Amino acid sequence: MLTRMSTPALTRQRALSILAVADLVTWQRSLGHDPAPLLAGTGITQADLDNPDTLITPLQEQAFFQHWLQREGRPDCGLDVGARYRLMHFGHLGLIVPHAATRRDAIALFLRFINLSYTHFTPDFDLQTGVLTLRGGEHLGPLRRFYLDRDVAFAVGLVREFFKDGAVPLLRVCFDYPLPPEQAQRYEQALGAPVQFGAPVTEMHVDPRRLGEAMPEANALLVRMLQPQCEAREAQVVAGQPVNWTERVQTALAQHGEQGPWPEAVDIAVKLRCSERTLRRHLALEGAHFQTLSDTARAQRASQWLGRTASLNDIAAALGYSEAAAFIRAYKRWFGRPPGQDRR
To answer: Which of 157, 159, 195, 162 is closest to 176 using CA atoms?
Structure first.
């Protein structure tokens, strides 16, 4: 029995549609704000904004939102941006999703064409529990929280759109970064659900019993007609992107859950369908080393898990260390201090 919806590999360097940025610029103008500071240094012109077929790079989008974050001066402003997103901002993807047969099929279509979305995270959906997870995004640096807030706010809005003809089955939302309790109320008001911070992974929980219900605008003929167009657009946005083995390894490590031993190079090679020797050779050509990438991923995961009540022994085991002492030595090497100092 299928329990998870498979998601194609997310191409980090794929092109992105201009539609969402264009709408945000129009929104700012309607509020009397000059959008020029937001576009400064991005290379995005007015002609780009006026052309619905324009594609921009992830770095252009990130520069735009870096300006946005600086202007707003509020670390939670990603919630406002995500609430602004609509399916129409996703072009071909936004056209096909509403016509899926069921809510479950709509989610499957969205994940099938995830490269037509704006997310920089790796999504996964569990059919049995109704849990959507978002992993990765460490390459976003200071913008990671902004993008998590944006994507979760959009996903919550999308669920409300899917279930606008009845009670919304949103149960709770979890974020993998810590936040003081007094700031959580803002998130609960914006998302309309209980919110937890400092979780092992960012998740959105919906009632799985409702996923088999029919979509209000279900139309199998339209789905069949639009799918080839989505496939052609997907090929366009990822066209010409060379395989980046460093990113592929980083993504595979980021997707590793809490269960099972920390993956070695041979495990990642199997996942990427190559030999360990081939994997190491490709990394070397890019000036990267598997152990360095693994240590970086473990350091990021350790930093997240220290915010939980898990013991150092448990964290050490999950990260592939035989004992807590070995983990503590590695942590000191990564951060220059023992893990106990970072307990929250």
So the answer is: 195
- Classify residue 262: in a domain, yes or no: yes
SS3 content of the chain, % helix, strand, coil (to 5): 55, 10, 35
User: What is the tally of helices (H) and strands (E) in the chain?
Assistant: 16, 8
Is 216 a residue whose pLDDT tops 80?
yes
Q: Is residue 188 part of a domain?
A: no
Domain count, the chain: 1
3-class DSSP state for residue 48?
A: helix
Average pLDDT value for residue range 108-133: 91
Q: Domain containing 285 — which CATH number? A: 1.10.10.60
pTM: 0.70
The residue range of the domain holding 262 is 245-342
Residue 165 included in any domain? no
Specify whether the backbone of 287 is left (phi greater than 0), alpha (psi in -120 to 50) or beta: left
| In a domain? residue 43 | no
- In this model, does residue 305 exceed pLDDT 80? no
3-state SS assignment for residue 65:
helix
